[in-house]
Amino acid sequence: MMRETMAKVETAFETIKNHLDAGEFDVYGICAIPRGYKVAVGDVLPESYVWEDGTMTDEPLKGTSAVHIADESDSAIKKALRRVGAKKGAYSGYSGNKIALVAGTEGFGGEEIGEVIIPDAKVLAIWPWKGVGHEID
Predict the structure, then answer these.
(1) pLDDT, tens digit, 9 for 90 and up, residues 16-50
(2) Is 84 strand, coil or helix?
(3) How many CB atoms lie within 10 A of CB 25?
(4) H/E element holding 4?
(5) Do 65 and 110 touch, CB atoms closer than 8 A?
C-alpha cells in the first residue's frame, strides 16, 4: 500500500515536471478543488474569493488562488506540494477532495505565503486527494 501511494505521488510529481518543462504557460500553481465542485482537465477555473479570519467573503479575486510553483526545479515542485498539504504530515489551510495543476499566462502574488492568483487558470491535471497531510491518491 505504501509503495502504491508513493508511486502515485511520483506520477503526480513527474506530470507536474513534464508540464513545467514543456513551458506552454508562464505561471503554474497547485490548488485544492472543493468537494462537490466538478472540474475536468482543460477547464478554466472561476475566480477565487477573498477570505477574512477563516471565512470566505463575496469579494472575488482577479483569478484563481493557487500555491505557486516558483520555477522548474524539483525543490520548487516539492515545496508547492507541501504548501498545499499534499505531502504526508503537511499542514495547510486548503481543503477539498482533489488537487489540480493549473496554469496561465500571467499571475500575481496573493496575501498568503507562496500564493499566486492566476487569471483564467487552466486545469492541466487533477488528482484525487484525502485532504491536508495526505499524499495525493
Answers:
(1) 999 999 999 999 999 888 888 899 999 999 999 89
(2) helix
(3) 18
(4) helix 2-22
(5) yes
- Over the Cα atoms of the chain, what is R_g? 14
Give yes or no for a contact between 109 and 116, defined as CB atoms under 8 angstroms apart.
yes
Q: Higher confidence at residue 131 or residue 16?
A: 16
Q: Are 8 and 135 in contact (CB under 8 A)?
A: yes
Residues whose CB falls within 8 Å of the CB of residue 75, separated by 6 or more in sequence, listed in order:
none
Sheet with 122-128: list strands edge to edge. Answer: 108-109, 115-118, 64-68, 27-33, 98-104, 122-128
Cα 5 to chain centroid distance, Å, stands at 19
Q: Which three cell numbers stand for residue 114?
A: 507562496
